[in-house]
Amino acid sequence: MSVKKGIYIINGAERVVMSEYEKDTLADVLRRIGLTSVKVGCGTGQCGTCTVLVNGDPVRACIKKFRDIPEHTRIETLEGIGTAANLHPLQQAWITYGGVQCGFCTPGFIMSAKGLLDRNLNPTRQEVRDWFTKHNNLCRCTGYKPLVDAVMAAASIMRGEIAEKDLEFKMPEDGSIYHSRYPRPDALYKVLGVADYGNDLALKMPAGTLHMAVTWAEHHHANILSIDTSEAEKAVGVAAVVTYKDIKGTNNLGAPMTSKMSLAKRVKEPVLCDTKVRRIGEPVAIVVADTEENARAAAKLVKVEYEVLPFYRNILESCRPGAVSIDGEAPNDLLRQPVFKGTEAQNIFAKAKDPESGIYVVEGSFYSSRQPHLMLEPWSLQAYYDEDNMLTVNYKSQTLWAGMVSVPRAIGCSPKEFRIIEIPSGASFGASMDHHAVAMIAAAEMVVKRPITWTQTYAETQRFTGKRAASYTNAKLACDANGKILALDFDNAIDHGGNANSAGNLEKKVIRFIGYPYNIPEVRGLSRGGLSNQPFGVAYRAYGSPQCYTSGEQLIDMMAEKLDMDPLEIRYINGAVEGDLTNNSYPFKNYGIRTMIDKLRPYYRESLAWAKETTEVGWKRGVGIACGGYHVSTPADRAEIDVELMPDGSVTQYNCWEAMGQGASIGTLVHMHEALKPLNLPVEKIKLYQNDTKFCPPTGPASGSRSHYMAGNATILAANDLMNAMRKPDGTYRTYDEMIAEGIPTKYHGVFSTVGLYKAIDDYTGVGDPTPDNNLLAIIARVEVNASTGKTRVLAVHGIADVGVIGNFTAVEGQAYGSMAHSIGFALTEDYCDEEKKYASPLGCGFLRCNEIPDDIEFEFQETPRKTGPHGSGGASECFQSCGHTAILNAISNAVGIRIHELPATPDKVKAAIRAKIEGTDYAPEPYDFGEDYNEILDYALECAKTEQRRVETAEEIEEEIRSGGH
Asked: Residue 575 gets which letter from DSSP?
């Protein structure tokens, strides 16, 4: 190893730096001297999280060799541009305009923006966007618009047009921060660059901390004949090599499959593979060593002998007769979830065959892709025994207490001696609902009993983590001559990949949201789930509904075209109104869709006129519409929080509302401040203690648009109990000292549960009322399509959402803007595949740069107060990512007269469809073959529903199941 000593001007001061001459990157050196605002995301120079300024120029530090930087070069990082007491205008603007969500990309963006403003203090919005695009600054959370807003505002400050204090939040006259733009409590430390994410903590672990690396499965599908660890065990620095034989528990993270229509009781998800591998990226062995380099070198020495089995690329292949069981025991065709509403669907479609019937039918087959989450932070965890000898894991968990059930059972430790701490998270979007990584590092910790840190490469995280489950749907829709929907018939198959992480739950989403939020009198459908040798399906924002809208919202447009109707009008006349029932035969929770469509009409008219305007040669304009939404919470949900009066008069809330960047801190704060309003507490007197299972109660997963609703209601209950205890007979409130003197407790527990209030979806019929609330979205997209190249560019998106009363506008808008970025990627570029190396990087996966997301994104809110919601609120995030991709697909059809049935609408697909249309050939896919005939399955389900004497669980039994992890 050669070492170089050099002097560099870092953040304005000369510093002596030691570097490994051949190996070190600029990021390595800066992070080693403590400047951990420099984040390493992709590690290949594509994402910009590592951006710093070198002599004023933005440089991606992860690929810049330090040896190539001359001595006395000026290097600037985020730590050097502002302090908590004296923020740089860019830092203040990032806070004010919601530029901070997860915060992992924030340092790179702010430094890149500083590089721009140091050159040009008066940029246009397009110049800002061009700059971020040129310098590969990527963001998955914000949709870029708030970041551009922040740069423009900072530039105004730096030009002297406004003062920095003008961007600071001003308390409303009524003293309430609910329904405001109060800044996130966690924004400050993120814009300062001092938020320590997983790999930052790795650098700050005690001396002697070990490092972990993994031997990954090399085949998509194979039996394991032998695992030889002998060479790895003898390698330099190795402390232990861990295989399935060292796992003390069940070595299985797979959950029970409880549906009565399931064909398997449980599907394996081994902590470490034992007898077979089911996908590329499954872990076979763990190596723990003194350095990451030694651990990785030894992991390559583990020899695994395989018997290669057939590689099933999708559920269409794996469910053919004679296919090998991917699980080893369970069938590849795992389960079925029917839905029946009415009894006339078959008759309606049969009558439609008569040309004189007045019944019109459209049908098609549609594929929704395996969408990668594309968070920029690779997985990074630590495991250790804490001061009370509790086995502890630092992880960006999105459902902490679920991990407290599944992981101890799998690795063989006591749940009472296990702890998970959620550390600052570089986003998740559902990916970290899975606790496989937690189980792996915890199992290794049980072997070595010394602190371990484990950071994956971006490529490893891509292969290891789950994706949005792929979906195939054959569907048909019947309407009368006036466009009123008569019936819907569909057969859907969800490809769960290599394990059943989301099986059962996801199929129930499908039967709820295909056709939502319309009144469909007759529904007959089936959603089935099965395995393949692809990445496993896992939660992803709007979980299950985008797959539905790929087919449902395109069928609506196809029907409008067939009837020569306006696509907005057909949606309006079918929008659910009071008295209409869902697919599941219960009333809708929200009937506001027609009002929302009416509010969209002016923009729709403008869009139609815009589409007729002259544009660039070769490009054609189109306007697309879609309606969607999502549920809030479930029929077996529970949230617990604690509030405590502190000696200084402040009040602390303890919760496990996981913070992925979506706004858990601001959500907690605004609920607490509003619930404790009678105490007249200043905001500074409300403290948050979040996401440590040792001290914080189970608040439930940060998913399903449930957290704001559930945690908010629990907060109100606990706050009321605290205030009742503090209240004196004269109506004033006791101090902490008075409470102690009178022996009155100062800590109160709030529990809010939906158990017993709603009806779960029936396994045989799909009938049920499984949610306390729903949100709604109506959206219009403007696109241009190049008929020669097939390229599509989205130029504008305008939508109206109803998520109840909004607690914090900046947070909700941030979810909306970010969701649209995901939706555009889903529509145009993203379909993950392990077979090509390009998918190991963000751009290779189709990650969209700033200029590929429109600056013209606007959302209006129809704030219908929720009767059961805290402060009138519902839940927000999921609806924004439900159907936006289909508005884009419909806009493409409107522009060039072709329909893309299988996502994504890449240029080659669009171009091929245009060519086929010109040639008069059919380019639509043939109906998918799912194996067993769905009519037979539906007949069987109906028979079971008629004959089975089912026992209904009591609320007490369901509560106990929640506690044990069964629900």
From this structure: B
Pairing of β 485-495 and β 380-385: unpaired
Q: What pLDDT shows up at residue 965?
A: 42
- Whether 948 has a pLDDT exceeding 80, the answer reads no
Query: Of 42, 94, 84, whose CA–CA distance to 63 is shortest?
Result: 42
Neighbours of 14 (CB within 10 A): 9
Q: 174: Cβ–Cβ under 8 A, 6 or more apart, which residues?
A: none
Contacts of 954 (CB under 8 A, 6+ apart): none
Tokens linked to 15: 């510093």
For position 964, what pLDDT does the model report? 47
Quick check: 449 and 488 in contact, CB under 8 A? Answer: no
651, 735 Cβ separation under 8 angstroms: no
Is residue 148 within 8 A of residue 90, CB to CB? The reply is no
Cα 918 to its chain centre, rounded Å, is: 40
Closest by Cα among 197, 180, 196, 195 to 96:
180
User: Tokens in use for 782?
Assistant: 């403007």
> How many whole angstroms separate alpha carbon 48 and alpha carbon 842?
11
CB atoms < 10 A from the CB of 699, how many? 32
d(C-alpha 127, C-alpha 112), whole Å? 13
Judged by DSSP in three states, 846 sits in coil
Give CA separation, 712 vs 77, 642, 646, 673, 674, in Å: 38, 12, 21, 11, 10
Tell me how far CA of residue 114 lies from CA of 45, 509, 590, 967, in angstroms: 19, 45, 45, 49
Rounded Cα distance, 949 and 73, in Å: 79
Q: Closest Cα partner for 528 from 967, 884, 830, 936?
A: 936
Q: State how far the Cα of 222 lies from the Cα of 406, in Å rounded to an integer.
A: 26
What angle is formed at CA 177 by the lines to CA 176 and CA 179, rounded to 5 degrees?
100
Burial class for 894, CB neighbours closer than 10 Å (0-12, 13-18, 19+): buried
CA-to-CA distance for 80 and 368, rounded, in angstroms?
A: 45
Give the strand order in the sheet containing 638-645: 686-690, 651-655, 638-645, 747-753
CB 860 within 8 A of CB 803: no
pLDDT above 80 (res 382):
yes
Would you call 961 a catalytic residue per the annotation? Answer: no
Assess whether pLDDT exceeds 50 at residue 186: yes
Q: Which tokens in the block code for residue 666?
A: 């601001």
What is the C-alpha to C-alpha distance for residues 792 and 787, in angstroms, rounded to an integer?
Answer: 9
Confidence band of 447 (pLDDT split at 50, 70, 90): very high
> Cis bond leading into 517, ω under 30°?
yes
> Given CA atoms 290, 295, 297, 302 in this order, what sign does their dihedral have?
positive
| Contacts for 40 with CB less than 8 Å, ≥ 6 apart | 27, 31, 49, 50, 62, 199
Q: Contact at 8 Å (CB) between 610 and 782?
A: yes
Structure pTM? 0.97
Shortest CA distance to 681 belongs to which of 650, 653, 712, 724? 650
**Alpha-carbon span 771 to 764, nearest angstrom:** 19
Secondary structure element (H or E) that encloses residue 348, with its range = helix 345-351
Evaluate the CA torsion angle 394, 397, 402, 407 in order and state its sign: negative
Choose the catalytic residue: 422, 640, 674, 878: 878
Q: Per-residue DSSP letters for 652-674?
A: EEEE----SSSSHHHHHHHHHHH
In the three-class reduction of DSSP (H, G, I as helix; E, B as strand; rest coil), residue 68 is classed as: helix
Separation of alpha carbons 297 and 300, rounded Å: 5
Strand pairing category for 3-10 and 74-76 = parallel
Question: pLDDT digit string (tens) for 260-301?
Answer: 999 999 999 999 999 999 999 999 999 999 999 999 999 999
In this prediction, what percent of the chain has a pLDDT beyond 70?
Answer: 98
Indicate the SS3 state at residue 252: strand
Instruction: Label the pairing between strands 452-455 and 380-385.
Output: antiparallel
pLDDT score of 137: 98
